[in-house]
Amino acid sequence: MKEEAIEFLKNLEGEVKIISHNDVDGICALAILINFLKKKGIRYTYELKEVPLKEVEKAKTMIFLDISLDNALKFISENSLIIDHHQFNKKPEMPFYNPREKDPKSYIPASYLVYEVCSELENMEEIKWIAAVGVIGDKGDENSEFCRKFIDDFENGEELDLISDYIFSATLVEHDKEYKILDILLNAKSSKEVVQNPYLKECYNIIQNEISKSNNKIEREGNIIFVEVISPYNIKSIIATQILEKNKDAIVVAYSVFEDSCNISIRTNTEINLGEIAKKVAEFCGGDGGGHRKAAGARIKRDKIEVFKEEFISEVEKFKNQ
Ligand SMILES: [Mn+2]
């Protein structure tokens, strides 16, 4: 519950280790928490990690942001806090804040949750825009009435949209640049400064150009659209979203082969629970998968993609026949 998170932050002492997801929402959530810790004069270290987490060195005091509960629980220490918004089964016996505890259908990205909790203890008004960027990055405004209102209150909505796209582009252009993006956010005096940042602008242009010339192979099976995205950049989730915009009732499965593995992004607006299916099918193929109802992902060995497709189709059929 929210109160547990507030209590945890209020009583922080010593040094805290923060583990956050390396996507737009996770980077923004971390930037907000660091701002808070600076105000409080609390020492911290942090890591931005790909999910699912594979390896984390434990510390005495830890905070996990935007990492699903099952995954985070493998790495917690005795004094830990988890702030997250992914689906979970059972509330853990530890400080934990996820609004799905009260409303399983809630969809409020971690950036907002961190902002909300820190605001109970410090005035965070001047970086509220970072929470908005994170919310947009995780499509909170498209999936939650509450988030839409939060975003609508900003006068510079278009600028915040652009910053979210800038950051997303930067995470696609180069691996391990999440820390550079974080520094840009931490050093910015306003959102204006970020939107003028030449590095982020360059990344955005590279990705826009790549999308326009990308070479995709499309197959259809009922309302499922499979698309192989051939590009040196990880643009499959953007392509999936674009195809979905033109095929509103579809389930879009976009995948790219990289070295030995195949990375998959799945998007839909239908009622099916993609997070569950992605997990089940990926595990069937010996890989990892999971995510949200409308947006999920998976990683499998490259030679398993045909098995994945077949199994995915049969899981979707099962759902329809329920
Ligand atoms: Mn998130």
Structural notes for this entry:
The protein is α/β, with parallel strands linked by helices. The protein has two domains: 2-201, Alpha-Beta Complex (inorganic pyrophosphatase (n-terminal core)), CATH 3.90.1640.30; 214-320, Diaminopimelate Epimerase, Chain A, domain 1. 46% of the residues lie in helices and 21% in strands. The protein has 14 helices and eleven strands. The protein has helices spanning 2-10, 24-40, 69-73, 110-119, 128-137, 140-143, 145-152, 157-173, 178-187, 191-195, 198-213, 236-246, 274-284, 305-320, and strands spanning 15-21, 43-49, 61-65, 79-83, 96-97, 215-221, 224-230, 251-258, 261-268, 288-291, 295-301. The strands form two sheets. A six-stranded mixed β-sheet has the order 6-7-8-9-11-10, with helices on both faces. A five-stranded parallel β-sheet has the order 2-1-3-4-5. Strand 6 and strand 7 form a beta hairpin. The radius of gyration is 19 Å and the shape is globular. The model has no long low-confidence stretch (mean pLDDT 94). Bound molecules: manganese (II) ion.
Number of strands: 11
Mean pLDDT: 94
Uncertain runs: none
The set of bound ligands, ions and cofactors reads:
manganese (II) ion
Strand content: 15-25%
- Tell me about the biggest sheet? 6 strands, mixed
Q: State the end-to-end CA separation.
A: 33 Å
CATH architecture of the largest domain: Alpha-Beta Complex
Structural class: alpha/beta
Q: Report the order of strands and helices.
A: HEHEEHEEHHHHHHHHEEHEEHEEH
Helix content: 40-55%
Q: Give me the side-by-side strand order of the main sheet.
A: 6-7-8-9-11-10
Total discrete domains: 2
Compute the number of helices.
14
Radius of gyration (Å):
19 Å
The global form is globular
CATH class of the largest domain: Alpha Beta
CATH topology of the largest domain: inorganic pyrophosphatase (n-terminal core)
